[in-house]
Design brief:
By secondary structure, the protein is of the alpha/beta class. The protein is 52% helix and 11% strand. Strands 3-2-1-4-5-6 form a 6-stranded mixed beta sheet, with helices on both faces. It holds the Pfam family HTH_31. Residues 18-71 form the HTH cro/C1-type domain. This is Helix-turn-helix domain-containing protein.
């Protein structure tokens, strides 16, 4: 499903290694930028994996950090080369959340809270099309279909028998009430949601209105965790014009605690399936 080399993850790992080298020399990003005659923001983007990094960048940084181990330099150079390869999602052109897709593709587990709609990984084709059309009213039919295709491709992680994504989704009751497309479409979507919830690696919980205020009241977020312990967990918060990625242990820890409270306040798995089933019947009856 995915290539063996994930450029997004390679950039993150390479950035982490370069940050360690800088910190070992007790240098600030500003000091490094002055030495290389580049902006401080470039050094920061290289280290957080948000910018493509060239082998020349690696060579120059290793020179500044006085790295004498040629095997280490060669390894970092190879990571830089791999990080410039393209993931499967690049074939679809300019996807605004391509960084997130790269992270999701390599993630081992994903915990998410969604207050408005059914999570993308659990959407039917028709529901996804209706959601994207409504959210992006100025998009062309071709653009909408491209995004739906990308979303469908992302769902392969759910069906991957060898390396399935461990998904835990807490969904606000409002997402079940919101009529996306039509009531019949909602019936199909909710039935699909129940079906997906029976997969051994998928857990779905509904957070009912009656719980009142809760830790997710500020909005949607996701927590991604990776199989390689050297890859730090990431909190992803989707925005309209830009997205936010939090990787500091303190930030991830805070959101993780919030998520535990959400899971505790939500209906359990059996109660959730019963609740979704009742909502499907309600939509069917109009």
């Amino acid at each position: 499903m995915a290539s063996n080399v994930n450029p997004t993850v390679r950039r993150r790992r390479l950035g982490q290694e370069l940050r360690k080298l800088r910190e070992a020399k007790n240098m600030t990003a500003e000091q490094v930028a002055e030495r290389l005659l580049v902006s401080q923001s470039k050094i920061s983007r290289l280290e957080n994996g948000r910018r493509s990094i060239s082998q020349r960048d690696v060579r120059d940084l290793c020179g500044v950090y006085e790295v004498e181990d040629e095997r280490m330099v060669d390894s970092l150079m190879q990571m830089a080369k791999d990080s410039r390869q393209q993931g499967w999602w690049h074939a679809f052109g300019d996807i605004p959340y391509s960084v997130y897709i790269g992270l999701e593709t390599d993630a081992e587990s994903l915990r998410m809270y969604e207050p408005q709609i059914i999570p993308g990984l659990l959407q039917t084709h028709s529901y996804a099309e209706a959601v994207i059309s409504g959210a992006l009213p100025e998009s062309t039919p071709a653009d909408i279909e491209k995004r739906v295709t990308v979303r469908t491709r992302r769902q392969e992680r759910i069906r991957d028998e060898e390396r399935p994504l461990r998904l835990w989704a807490v969904i606000d009751e409002g997402a079940l009430h919101r009529i996306v497309g039509s009531r019949q479409l909602m019936v199909e979507q909710l039935e699909h949601l129940i079906e997906q919830s029976h997969l051994p690696h998928v857990t779905v919980q509904v957070l009912p209105f009656e719980m009142g205020a809760h830790p997710g009241i500020s909005g949607q977020y996701s927590i991604l965790e990776f199989p390689d312990t050297s890859d730090s967990s990431v909190v992803y918060i989707e925005g309209v014009t830009s997205d936010l990625y939090l990787e500091k242990a303190q930030d991830v820890g805070k959101y993780s605690v919030m998520y535990e409270h959400l899971r505790a306040q939500a209906l359990n798995v059996d109660q959730t399936r019963e609740f979704i089933s009742k909502m499907a019947k309600k939509h069917a009856q109009g």
